[in-house]
Amino acid sequence: MTGDHLREVLAARAPRDWELYRKAAESRELASGPALRREVWRSERGWAARWWENGGPRFCAAATPRGLEAAIRESARTATAPADPPVWPAGTATPAQAPPLASPPDLFDELARLVSAESRGEASLTQLVVRRGVRTEGIANAAGLDVSDASQHLDGFASAIGRRGTRVCDAILLFRWDGEPDVTGLARRIADRVTLPLSDRPAPFDRGEWLLDPAVSAALLAALTPIFTGEAGIRWRPGAAGLSRRVGIVDDATADARHDGEGTPSRRVTLVADGALQGLLTDLDRARRSGAPPTGHGVRSSFRTPPQVSPRRIFFVPERTETSGELLSRVRRGIFASAVTAPVLADFASDRFEVEFTGVAVVAGRAQGPVAAARAAGRLSELLPRIAAASTDRQFFPLPHPVGAPTLLIERAAFE
Amino acid sequence: MDLDPPLVARWLDPLAKQPGEIADLFLERRTEAGIDWRDGEIVATRFTATEGLAARWRGGPREHLVSVPRADADAAREAIRSLQIALGRPALPARPGGASLEEREPELPDVARWRRRITAALTRHAPRHRFRWTLRDVFRQVIPAGAPPVSFSRRLVSLEGTFTAASRRGDEDRAFAFHAPDTDATADELKAALGAAAMPRDHAVPCGSGETDIVFGNGSAAVLFHELLSHPLESRHSILSALKDARLAVSELEVRDDPGRLDLCGGYECDDEGTRPRAVKLLDAGRLAGRLTDRADPDRGGSNGHARRAEPWDPPLVRGSNVIVAGGQVGTDEMTRRLGNGLWIEDISAGTIELASGSFRLRFPRARRVRRGRLADEVGPGVAAGDVISALKRIESGLGREVKPYRALGWCARAGQVIPVQGAAPDVLIRQLAVRPSA
Q: How many CB atoms lie within 10 A of CB B248?
């Protein structure tokens, strides 16, 4: 059974409203630790279909074309409420070829040495998982679309433990490298994350400037993404409240893939500029409902789930170029947040946020000592206009889509 | 082409000749039916049929796994052949003529019976809602080298989402989650749970910060012990690793991990290495009693059947299943009186633990304040936090009489692997746990 047969099956059920997606992915994963060396070779094939039958939307996915045909048949037995189908994109593109899959680098010994050095022997790496993968995705639809994309990635996670006397702290950090592995930067993040909480010192100030490491800024931006996807529950408008003029926010995945998970061409979308919300990310469904054109942000987290609107590569764009050192020198009395210690909470309905972090107290631009655990909380609508500066040291983190953030300086933050 | 277990075992046997070597083939076929309901209407459906298998070899600290996204004899041959080549062992010859193109047709679950029942329950108890209902059928087969093959299947039902309920200050949105194996009694249990969740109640006010006494009621203590005991006893690097036989809690407290409880989501008949599971006492009369193990663990006297995989391509990890806390003698009224002043928590939305330090946190969407032994106002959301050793020490003797399954707990994630888990517990009173309000 082939894709051509599945197209015929779908066209027979919904001549004008069907979409067929296929995915093939391979990855090599190397997990290393003091008493472990595990290699995992993964292979994934998947098919997915969406179609509007008798006016109602349906979705099926399967590992094989025959499985998909069986799922399509079973799905037709359950009636769904009528809903308008999206306007399907059209076009063709030259078939994409996945690059050859290489083994992931073995970085455990180097990273373990650097973590120990960065932490003066207080932190040790317990496990490193590095994964390199390639994948190709193809999409066809009733409007004549037939496109494919190929991509590759290098990511993973590291777990480490910090010890000082009887105090211990462990953590897992995710990483993603678009180019060569940044082992030194990862070692510094790991060392800070597992040694700063060992100090047992609470936040020394209840308010002040808040300097965010790129990892913390990225976690904050990832938590704010429902603002940019227009998800329900946001009762306040950032445009009305005003955003910081010191930093813009953009989503641009054009370098990663030519199309999104629905076949819409990738493009750069400016979300925040000049202190105001400039636009929202849309997939085909959101575009139909809002009347706006799709921005190419229908994302499939797996072939098993239908595409949903989501950022693909979202990042801060500083309006001025300052180094992180210059930002540090502007802190009169505040806290440098080095790593988050719990997921960032953003409650849009009640306009509240909460970030738990570990870091360093700063007075007059100089580090005063570690802060084991602190919490910044308050109103989201007040937080965003208070971003006073952003530096040039932007890094990307998998959260799970790539989120790029530099060091940020936020004024008048409240700490607990 | 269907799998021939004796033939696959013959292919695997040469890979596990040396002492300490493990080789196995793991296969999974999974079908899922999902229905999205909005205010009584079915607005979307999703049906999926996936399959895959993996051949694995482990020898001491080295492990190698090769997965193939099909589940038939050719896929098994391909996975084992790739594994042999990766290990530098003599490999099976490639199949003459390449892999067979014949594909097996999956059997998808019939949703008609459940669709009628869910529609009726939602109409009666929660007419304004956004729910996703899922029915999962999973078939798993493990063919270990040097041991008989085993297989089992499970069918799990989930209903998750939000609905609009009446509170004494007007309507409010409430979250609801229910996970259970599909049995004759599940629909009635779901209906009762939904009815209880939709009961009118007061508007919640923010809870204060500080240490307070807490009763974890209605089975929610299963989440507490899942974090306090199950996770630390899965790991060799946790705060409990060096405390063998230590007395950590009152002698009345008995906690076990029991995969044999097939009425709970975490149950299974054999683990993902093919071992028949045993119930493991985690706390016996308040003392640390046992740990969870897999076949690869050299120090712990063999596997007790807790190797679990989320997907066919994942290596098995030591994981918990169903946390069961033995009941005591105290009724609900007496428990409220013993609490005196504090919080009564029945819903926990998330839990985490740091294994090395043992610090944990539990997020609760709402709780009931208790004053002078009487239920008072609603508070929340908030976070209860502490460390494992202190929290276990602060559990009061006098556990609740009735042991209830906690159906809102259905899944647990660790190292990116999400597996079904559950638990059952009586009401449990803990003194002086730190609580603070949360966003």
A: 20
For A323-358, the pLDDT digits (tens) are 999 999 999 999 999 999 999 999 888 888 999 999
> Cα separation of A360 and A338, whole Å?
7
Of the candidates B69, B106, B416, which has its C-beta nearest A70's C-beta? Answer: B106
| pTM > 0.90: yes or no | yes
Backbone CA torsion sign across A303, A127, A202, A388? negative
Helix, strand or coil for residue B21? strand
Q: Which of A37, A63, A72 sits opposite B50 (nearest CB)?
A: A63
Q: What one-character-per-residue DSSP string does A22-62 give?
A: EEEEEEEEEEEETTEEEEEEEEEEEEEEEEEETTEEEEEEE
Q: Do A64 and B70 touch (CB under 8 A)?
A: yes
Q: Which residues of A touch B49 (CB under 8 A)?
A: 61-64, 67-68, 70-71
Domain-wise residue ranges, chain B:
5-197, 210-437
Rounded to 5°, angle at Cα B320 from B315 and B322: 135
Question: Residue B272: its pLDDT value, please?
Answer: 97
Which positions ≥6 away from A118 have C-beta within 8 Å?
Answer: A187, A188, A190, A191, A192
DSSP conformation class of A301: S
Question: What is the complex's ipTM, to 2 decimals?
Answer: 0.91
Scanning every residue of chain A, which has its alpha carbon at the shortest distance from the alpha carbon of B71? A63
Q: Shortest Cα distance from B373 to chain A (angstroms)?
A: 32
3-state secondary structure A358-371: EEEEEECCEEEEEE
The domain ranges of chain A are 3-196, 201-414
CA A146 vs CA A15, A72, A300: distances in Å: 16, 21, 17
How is residue A64 annotated by DSSP? S
Does domain B5-197 fall into CATH 3.40.50.300?
Answer: no
CATH class held by domain A3-196: alpha beta
Q: How far apart are CA B344 and CA B23, in angstroms?
A: 49
Give chain B positions within 8 Å (CB) of A35: 61
The reply to whether residue B315 touches residue A36, judged by beta carbons under 8 angstroms, is no
Q: How many other CB atoms are found less than 10 A from the CB of residue A247? A: 24
